[in-house]
Amino acid sequence: MVTARVFLRPDGALEMRANGHADFDELGKDPVCAGASTLALTVAQCVDTMNEEDALEDVRIHIGGGNTRVVAKPKPEAFHEALDYFRVAAVGFQLLSEAYPEHVRLILNETAETDSEAEEADSDKEDSSP
Question: What pTM value is reported for the model?
């Protein structure tokens, strides 16, 4: 199952994580996984572009091993732009979870962990594509 989390952290950063494999079809041929991956990678690319435009105070992007984690702390004037990207991803994951509830789960407004706890949890996930 793909588990997607989208939330605002106590420090004002936005965070999105997508982990796991949808198991709708075999690895590499799974359209549900492809949809989830596209959503996660789109957020990562949008955040990377914002970073190149110097609109972020802090950014961390991790993509690999079936895990995607994007953390963006926007400058105050760019907060709404960043929030829009994360909201769009949340809506996309919500649509996937409604269409494929056995394969995709969305968690919103989760309490954020510390960065070291999140990195440890992400590194412990099985090696598969979202």
Answer: 0.82
